[in-house]
Amino acid sequence: MPTTTLNDIPDKITIGDSVAWKKSLADYSAADGWVLSYALVKSGVQITFAASASGADHLVDLAATTTAAWTDAGEYAFDAYVTKDAERYLIDSGLVEIRPNLAAQSSGYSGLPYCFAVRDAIVAVLEMRATESQTSIAVGGRQISEMSHGELMDALNRAERGCNLWKRRNRRDRNKPTGAKVKVAFTES
Question: In the chain, what are the domains?
Answer without folding.
Answer: 12-103 (2.60.40.10), 112-173 (no CATH)
